[in-house]
């Protein structure tokens, strides 16, 4: 009997999780660690490539450390100490801040090396991890209802090597299947298209500067004529002889629809190529791209026994395009809610997930969505970046907001400024930011 067919004849798992990225694997780890029976389904086999900037901020490091994985990450990754921002003729080095909840450093590590570590850790904690196994569809889905996901008795999966299909039954079905989220959409999730979304592309290059202790962010990209084009660029040293070079763009950028990200990457590589030794000879292959569903733009994220986590729930931070930490965090929050539901034998406890998501991210993402709408205006961006990068204390405070590293117990400019922005975002409807920034179109 194969592993799949033997699983099909077993009693239902407590939880089945679709997707072995940051959100699914952390969720599987926390649930298995709490003693629940968990099955994690991942269609690829680790190690596997995943298009990403490969940057871990202090928020991600905190989650990895909590799972007991920091030593393993340090062994495969490259430690860095802060961000260097460049734009409109100015530049600034900013060390990650001292913080009571987060370390003052980050790592870069390829997703090729990172994602398998977390999935294996979940397995070691007791989860059943099926790799090379794709979730094809929901098992016995309930009907659609307004404002909630559908429920399901599990998922039907297919072993990609043998072609064998089998049902996996579970009391709870969690979906962390990433930016495209086919299974999430089958559950009834939809993206709010009025809200910002990101699109990004990255490639690897060999570079002598591969072990610098900073990650670089460029807030202006210029075409061969020297004109600013919509988008931003990054260079993240990987410490293994390579750097990760990429570009990103927001759907709120006016020219979003006409932009070809491959061309944008070419412009960016031409812009920084000499300094970093980036050219056709040092390129490790054609760049690959993906989408960044952000700002909690996807919902509903809860059903009678179902939850969405990570990119499937649109949890990327619009301020900085960071999604790994939010994958780990939302996987952990979902594990806590499902754990409470299992312990009390009460599925209504899943509402804890919505409540904690709202209190952890609701206000912050509202401000972030407004911020990206405003800075998507090229004139506003040029003035803010050009002036801001010349005032280090101001930028340091902004970094705390943008990386979501504010202190609960501090009343510094970042915290006070942020609270003022929350009040402003509360007072104005979401579309007001569009109206404010689009007036110049007339
Ligand atoms: C170009 C680019 C650069 C980025 N750079 C950064 C960065 O530097 N730092 C950062 O923090 N974030 C970055 N992000 C965002 C980050 O990659 C995501 O937010 C993060 O991977 C989300 O984790 P996840 O677990 O929700 O989804 P994913 O990491 O996408 O994992 C989903 C998993 O589900 C599997 N899967 C999908 N469908 C099925 C199915 N039907 N059955 C079984 N398995 C399935 C997939 O194979 C995948 O392994 C970047 C994104 C892009 C596109």
Written account of the structure:
This protein is α+β, with helices and mostly antiparallel strands. The protein has 3 domains: about 230 residues, FAD/NAD(P)-binding domain, CATH 3.50.50; about 100 residues, Alpha-Beta Plaits, CATH 3.30.70; about 80 residues, no CATH class. About 35% of the residues lie in helices and about 25% in strands. The protein is built from 13 helices and 21 strands. Helix 3 runs parallel beside helix 8. The protein is globular and about 65 Å long. The site of flavin-adenine dinucleotide has 42 residues, from helix 2, strand 9, helix 6, strand 13 and strand 19.
Topology:
Layout: H1 3-8, E1 13-18, H2 22-33, E2 38-41, E3 55-56, H3 58-66, H4 70-76, E4 78-80, E5 82-87, E6 90-95, E7 106-108, H5 111-124, E8 128-130, E9 133-139, E10 154-159, E11 165-175, H6 182-186, E12 190-191, E13 197-206, E14 214-218, E15 221-222, E16 228-229, E17 232-237, E18 242-250, H7 261-276, E19 288-293, E20 298-299, E21 306-308, H8 324-344, H9 351-375, H10 378-388, H11 392-402, H12 413-427, H13 432-438
Parallel strand pairs: 1-2, 1-11, 2-8, 5-14, 11-21
Antiparallel strand pairs: 3-7, 4-7, 5-6, 9-10, 10-11, 12-20, 13-18, 13-19, 14-17, 15-16, 17-18
Bound molecules: flavin-adenine dinucleotide.
Gist of the model:
The chain has 442 residues and is an alpha+beta fold. The chain has 3 domains: 3-78 and 108-193 and 294-362, FAD/NAD(P)-binding domain (3-Layer(bba) Sandwich), CATH 3.50.50.60; 197-292, 2-Layer Sandwich (Alpha-Beta Plaits), CATH 3.30.70; 364-441, no CATH class.
């Amino acid at each position: 009997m194969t592993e799949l067919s033997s699983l099909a004849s077993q009693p239902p798992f407590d939880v089945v999780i679709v997707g072995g990225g940051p959100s699914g694997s952390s969720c599987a780890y926390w649930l298995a660690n709490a003693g629940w029976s968990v099955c994690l389904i991942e269609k690829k086999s680790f190690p596997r490539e995943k298009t990403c900037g490969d940057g871990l901020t202090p928020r991600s490091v905190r989650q990895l450390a909590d799972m007991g994985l920091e030593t393993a990450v340090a062994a495969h990754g490259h430690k860095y100490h802060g961000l260097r921002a460049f734009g409109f003729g100015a530049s600034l080095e900013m060390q990650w801040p001292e913080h009571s909840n987060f370390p003052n450093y980050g790592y870069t590590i390829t997703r090729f090396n990172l994602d398998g570590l977390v999935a294996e850790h979940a397995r070691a904690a007791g989860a059943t991890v099926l790799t090379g196994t794709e979730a094809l569809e929901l098992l016995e889905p309930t009907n659609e209802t307004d404002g909630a996901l559908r429920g399901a008795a599990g998922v039907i999966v297919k072993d990609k090597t043998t072609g064998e299909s089998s049902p996996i039954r579970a009391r709870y079905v969690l979906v962390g299947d990433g930016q495209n989220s086919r299974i999430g959409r089958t559950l009834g999730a939809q993206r709010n298209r009025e809200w910002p979304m990101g699109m990004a592309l990255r490639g690897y290059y060999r570079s002598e500067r591969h072990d610098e202790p900073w990650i670089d962010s460029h807030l202006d990209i210029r075409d061969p004529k020297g004109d600013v084009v919509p988008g931003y660029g990054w260079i993240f040293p990987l410490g293994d002889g390579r750097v990760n070079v990429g570009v990103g763009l927001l759907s709120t950028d006016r020219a979003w629809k006409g932009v070809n990200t491959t061309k944008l990457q070419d412009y960016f590589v031409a812009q920084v190529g000499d300094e970093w030794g980036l050219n056709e000879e040092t390129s490790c292959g054609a760049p690959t791209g993906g989408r960044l569903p952000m700002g909690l733009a996807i919902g509903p994220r809860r059903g009678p026994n179902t939850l969405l986590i990570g990119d499937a729930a649109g949890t990327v931070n619009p301020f900085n395009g960071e999604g790994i930490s939010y994958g780990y965090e939302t996987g952990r929050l979902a594990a806590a809610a499902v754990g409470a539901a299992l312990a009390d034998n009460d599925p209504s406890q899943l509402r804890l997930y919505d409540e904690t998501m709202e209190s952890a991210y609701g206000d912050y993402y509202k401000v972030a969505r407004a911020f990206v709408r405003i800075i998507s205006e090229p004139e506003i961006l040029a003035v803010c970046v050009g002036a801001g990068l010349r005032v280090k204390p101001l930028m340091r405070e902004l970094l705390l907001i943008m990386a979501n590293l504010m202190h609960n117990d501090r009343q510094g400019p970042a915290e006070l400024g942020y609270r003022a922005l929350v009040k402003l975002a509360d007072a104005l409807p979401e579309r007001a930011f569009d109206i404010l920034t689009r007036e110049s179109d007339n």
